[in-house]
Design goal:
9 strands, Ketoreductase domain-containing protein, 7-stranded parallel beta sheet, single chain, SDR_fam, oxidoreductase activity, 331 residues, oxidoreductase, NAD(P)-bd_dom_sf, 2 domains, Rossmann fold
Amino acid sequence: MSAIGGMQTAGGGPAAAAAAAGAAHGAPGGPPPAPAATAATTAMAASEALSARFGLAGRKALVTGGSRGIGRAIAEALCAAGARVYIVARRGPETGEAVEEMRARGFDVQGSAADLSDREECAALMEKVKAAFDGELHILVANAGVNAQAPTLSYGEGDYRRIVGLNQESTYVLCQLAHPLLAAGARGAGAGAGSSDSGAGGGGSSGSARSACIVFISSVAGGPLAGRSGSLYAMSKAAINQLAKSLACEWARDGIRVNSVAPWVTLTEMGKQNLTNPALLEGLLARTPMGRLAEPEDVAGVAAFLCSPAAAYVTGQTLAVDGGYSVAGYW
């Protein structure tokens, strides 16, 4: 036997060696090489795997405060990932405009107006969502809220009712009302500890990956750090962070995950109005290691991740989106 380029050939000289070499490279006279995956096929397979892991095709989502700012960015992110989205906001015309603008981009979105600080309007909203989504819901993003920075002694009874009523109470009420729809959505997706496709320990990847989920849009004001004003706002956000932990434990058996996203100062339309003081802006940037404030899309990306199958084993957590603000020391 002789060797050519590290390849062993048998019987006979240059002609046989050349034939063998040609066959190895698919030349005439030898068998054709095994078909290889093309770059396009590989890319398509990778894209499908990515969509299965991070996509939201077929999922049904409710986003409160979804007509502008962080809520609008989240609604668009969920739509872009394939979800059907229902948005709600206080102002009817603004909500209608947001729906039409998103539909113009090809998104599957519906919406209506409601005052979520009113329990009856919350209940009416959930009836609309139930009808729109055939009795099931996979995602609830509780984003609607209000902020009013003031010293504690300056707050009145009306401030308490307004801030705590929308930020905290409406979130709690919506979770109660949405639970049957979320549980139905989880069952329809095969989620939950008791599903037949669960793996060892009662948490199979197929079922848990298709669980329903709730995402609260909280704030770094809810802890662990505190500020010199805005105690009502901070208290209301700390409350929903704890609610996320409680519901995560209580509703896991129903196939429902619950998490909070805690942004730092975000450059929404409202946020920009509060940053007209150059000294204030300079101070905020100085305390943020990444040297910039958040954009709505920064928050939306994290919220969309928490709604995706990629976050199937994440529940009861508060994820800060703050450019390092909450972990920065003194140096």
